[in-house]
């Protein structure tokens, strides 16, 4: 079972992109990139702006520093449990054995690892508080959530899981469209030598028709420079689109992993904020990129 879980994460190493080691107390940023709590805390404090914000080390999205500190960042329980299971494995099986019933084994392994309450260590997180959007234990209800709308995680997780799936399908369609637009844009910036040669050709032709074309000469030169500037702007827009696509891919990947490997408690920890983020990203229009015109001049 542990081997199956290890295989499931082969393409997504459980390593922190800051320290390059295994995640210790993994925490999820609003952009759905995961880091060690200690690593992201140190990084955030060192790079904090006057507006109390910092950039995600991977996608560069601006993250607002939580008012109550980074301890308020949600834990990535899927990563935590995967690490625990992999650590506990004793023997390695053959490649054929790893591949057999892999997904069933992963689901069974994770499902058996219920999450304990951080405030009441001996209690399991079996309830969901709608008012506070948090997963809690029975003792939490009595001490902190009296009078709130409380449901069993088993009752609400299926509905939330389906909502995440629906939001993911819509967002992935948008992601594929935006990626196709980005791929069609040119990766090259116009060479300044081409610009100079084009201007020379324009001026040479203008000299032979000076009576009629003096004003047209300067107009054509202006158009050449304008096209050149547009190419530079297109390159900048393409970079922004790639960053947006990276952020979109991150959220979609996190949602897919949560649907596939998350327990009911995992689903409810992230459901509300994840659905909202996927909905926003699905509705965000893709930047329109014009196909840059070729810079040339053909004497008439």
UniProtKB/TrEMBL annotation:
It comes from the Eukaryota. Residues 112-153 form the B box-type domain. Keywords: Metal-binding, Zinc, Zinc-finger. The keyword Metal-binding applies. InterPro entries: TRIM45/56/19-like, Znf_B-box, Znf_C3HC4_RING-type, Znf_RING, Znf_RING/FYVE/PHD, Znf_RING_CS. This is Tripartite motif-containing protein 3-like. Residues 16-60 form the RING-type domain. GO terms for molecular function: zinc ion binding. The keyword rRNA-binding does not apply.
């Amino acid at each position: 079972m542990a081997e199956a879980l290890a295989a499931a994460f082969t393409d997504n190493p459980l390593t922190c992109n800051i320290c390059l080691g295994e995640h210790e107390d993994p925490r999820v940023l609003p952009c759905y990139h995961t880091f060690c709590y200690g690593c992201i805390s140190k990084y955030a404090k060192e790079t904090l702006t006057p507006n109390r914000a910092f950039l995600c080390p991977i996608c560069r999205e601006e993250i607002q520093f939580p008012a109550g500190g980074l301890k308020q960042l949600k834990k990535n329980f899927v990563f935590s449990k995967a690490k625990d299971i992999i650590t506990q494995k004793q023997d390695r099986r053959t490649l054929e054995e790893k591949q057999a019933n892999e997904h069933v084994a992963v689901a069974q392994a994770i499902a058996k690892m219920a999450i304990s309450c951080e405030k009441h260590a001996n209690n399991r997180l079996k309830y969901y508080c709608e008012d506070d959007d948090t997963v809690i234990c029975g003792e939490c209800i009595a001490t902190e959530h009296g009078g709130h709308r409380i449901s069993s995680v088993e009752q609400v997780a299926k509905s939330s899981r389906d909502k995440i799936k629906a939001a993911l399908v819509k967002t992935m369609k948008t992601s594929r469209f935006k990626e196709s637009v980005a791929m069609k844009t040119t990766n090259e910036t116009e060479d300044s030598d081409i610009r100079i040669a084009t201007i020379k050709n324009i001026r040479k032709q203008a000299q032979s028709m000076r009576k009629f074309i003096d004003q047209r000469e300067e107009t054509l030169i202006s158009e050449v420079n304008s096209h050149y500037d547009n190419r530079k702007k297109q390159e900048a827009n393409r970079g922004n689109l790639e960053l947006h696509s990276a952020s979109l891919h991150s959220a979609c990947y996190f949602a897919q992993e949560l649907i596939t490997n998350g327990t009911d408690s995992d689903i409810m920890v992230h459901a509300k904020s994840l659905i909202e983020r996927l909905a926003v990203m699905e509705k965000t229009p893709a930047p329109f990129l014009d196909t840059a015109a070729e810079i040339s001049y053909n004497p008439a």
